[in-house]
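Hi P.,

Sorry for the delay on this. The queue was packed all week, but I finally got your sequence through. Input first:
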Amino acid sequence: MKCPSCGYQNIQGEDNCDSCQADLTSCDGVTPKSKVERVLMEDHLSNLKPKQAICVNENATVLQAIQKMNEIRAGSVCVENDAHEMSGILTERDILMRVMGKYADLTKVSVKEVMTADPECLEEEDTLAYALHQMSVKRYRHIPVLRADQAPGIITARDVLQYLAKLFP
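Then the structure:
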């Protein structure tokens, strides 16, 4: 597939040009047939207004992280290192699968030991279709969203469904 921006010949199916990184998704021959398809393929994650991610330090205890999640009524927290850079994400699933039944005292287990390290993040410019694809294929329910000049946001599968439900009551 030839890039319309720079003319570079890319492999069929690439989302971005290997040469100039231009978006090639509009060149893949897939055209939306309905209003729902158009919204999924064209609306960006920024339309969802991602909530600011709540963060805990990677040296915090799992109990502290659980208390924070309960306090804010969230299913995940982003994990930061001492330099305030995102190093992971801790979700309800991480707690159920990696913590429960394995540790007797949650005050002695650090978040770093059980978090999902280096989580995949999305960009505000990514489409709803791409986010749903990532969630489906990789079985995510919470994905950090990187935002220009702001702290990371977070979206959930529920956020996408609520957005669609408002557009198509």
